[in-house]
Design brief:
GO molecular function: ATP binding; ATP hydrolysis activity; branched-chain amino acid transmembrane transporter activity
Family: Belongs to the ABC transporter superfamily.
Structural class: alpha/beta
Protein name: ABC transporter ATP-binding protein
Strand order of the largest sheet: 6-7-8-3-9-10
Bound molecules: adenosine-5'-triphosphate
Number of strands: 10
Keywords: Amino-acid transport, ATP-binding, Nucleotide-binding, Transport
Shape: globular
Organism: Mangrovihabitans endophyticus
């Protein structure tokens, strides 16, 4: 129904080995919104994305996508369900060309004609990738690698995009372009985005809502507008 969030995390406890990193996290992400996940290094933001995409398994709690439990879905099936994850560091395979990297994102489909059309859509969206389609990943600039990582995720037309620090290491102009692209994807295609960022200003400029994580818990959740403007919240949770 309209009221069911696209992604719902309930009472999630998860981590690596015996010690949990995330403690009793609850988070609902409505369809068609961008939710920023903020917080200091080590707060658990990356771990949260890994749990949603099935790279680590919760020790307690539930993760529901479109009302269905994700906890039994295998990682390689996530993309088929409509979930794409762009990891920290982006995961571009630098020995492969731009086009080979993009094809990896569409591999699960296995339909050649459809793949060509999808590639062309990505090249329309990211013009520099079209020019460099035969170049190996290691020849790309940081901004181009970010485009490639995003393009590889988008080629499968995900409903939920999990993005881990897309602005890391990029020039301010490229960061602004990335945020603008996320806005376009949300507004034109209704894409839902969980956006982990250290770049608070960039993230709050595009997000509808934001959570601030601290020590593996969600310390605060509010609209991005309030977190930007409410001095008390900013001082308490964002340090500016
Ligand atoms: P950062 O911005 O530094 O990535 P973060 O908020 O994303 O921070 P996480 O990467 O989720 O934080 O890390 C949370 C905690 O989990 C940290 O204490 C970290 O040391 C620990 N951790 C992260 N990855 C692993 C791992 N593969 N094995 C064991 N512990 C890990």
């Amino acid at each position: 129904t309209l009221d069911t969030p696209l992604l719902e995390i309930r009472n999630l406890t998860a981590g690596y080995g015996a010690a949990p990193v995330l403690h009793e996290v609850d988070l609902a992400v409505p369809a068609g919104r961008i939710v920023a996940v903020l917080g200091a290094n080590g707060a658990g933001k990356t771990t949260l994305l890994r749990a949603v995409s099935g790279l680590i398994r919760p020790s307690r709690g539930q993760i529901l996508f479109d009302g269905r439990d994700l906890c039994t879905v295998r990682v390689e099936q996530m993309i088929r369900r409509g979930i794409a994850h762009v990891p920290e560091g982006r995961g571009v395979i630098v020995e492969l060309t731009v086009e080979e990297n993009l094809r990896l994102g569409g591999l699960w489909r296995g339909r050649r004609g459809a793949e060509r059309a999808q590639l062309d859509e990505i090249y329309d969206l990211f013009e520099p990738l079209a020019r460099r389609r035969r170049s190996p990943g290691h020849q790309l600039s940081g901004g181009e690698r970010q485009m490639l990582a995003l393009g590889r995720a988008l080629i499968a037309s995900p409903r939920l995009l999990l993005l881990d620090e897309p602005s890391l290491g990029l020039a301010p102009r490229v960061i602004a372009q990335t945020m603008e692209l996320l806005r376009t994807l949300r507004d034109r295609s209704g894409m839902t985005v969980l956006l982990v960022e250290q770049n608070v200003h960039g993230a709050l400029s595009v997000a509808n809502d934001a959570v601030v994580m601290s020590l593996g818990r969600i310390a605060v959740r509010d609209s991005a507008a309030r977190l930007r403007t409410d001095e008390r919240l900013r001082h308490a949770y964002l340090g500016f």
